[in-house]
Amino acid sequence: MKRLLILSLPLFLLTACLKDDEPEIIIEPVFPVLVSSDTLTTGEKWGLTIGMPAEDLYNKIKTLSFQQPVTNVQVIGNFFSKIEDLENKISLYHAIYLDESFGTSTGIQIAFADDKVSTIYTNSGVKLNRWPSESSLINIKTGDATEGIYQKLLRIRQFPGYSKKFERISIFSKNLKKPYDPGMTLSRQWQFVAISDSSHTYHISVNLTDGKLNSIYYYLYKN
Fold this sequence. Notes:
The model is unreliable at 1-21 (pLDDT under 50). The protein has two domains: 32-77 and 173-223; 79-171. A hairpin with a 2-residue loop joins strand 16 and strand 17 (200-209). It is mainly β. It has helices spanning 54-62, 149-157; strands spanning 14-16, 25-27, 33-40, 44-45, 48-49, 72-75, 79-80, 95-99, 108-113, 116-122, 127-128, 130-131, 140-141, 168-170, 173-175, 189-197, 200-209, 212-222. The protein has two helices and 18 strands. Strands 3-18-17-16-6-15 form a six-stranded antiparallel sheet, with no helix packed on it. The protein has a six-stranded antiparallel sheet with strand order 7-14-8-9-10-11, with no helix packed on it.
């Protein structure tokens, strides 16, 4: 998917054109360098203690003291097949993804910011102002309040030709400014990125078993 937020190494490509009739100057990509990594199965790291319950873990991540606050965690495996399961969840996340069971280029990605719909894209990268596009139907538009999205999705699912986009519903990017989602306890892993300083970044995975933290994986990169 074009705009799905995932934990991957950043890639920077800078191009500069001096004049229209001069050749383009391309600077080779700069890749982060792995400085260190570790796996912890006992004790604690950054106050994240092995064995702590998932909700306590969530609240601790919200307060981690890095150069910048951690603003979201990726909740791995947070898939649903019934929109009714998301009645009280949508506003807790940064985005919702709707698609058919096997994935299509016309799947829909709806992102939120400041409790409103900020962008709507198809999986192929087409930006939409509203979905569905037919003005005669109930639709979700950029600027809509997140609190009304659930009811609109219930209506859209009933339209002929749109029900299949509700076969696979995903909410991954948990907004740490929002309350804990009890459904996160069922995930086997959460992932997040933390800026250590101006030149170093941590990629962190916290792994859960039976709703408790059982291990921490981390990689420290020099940018």
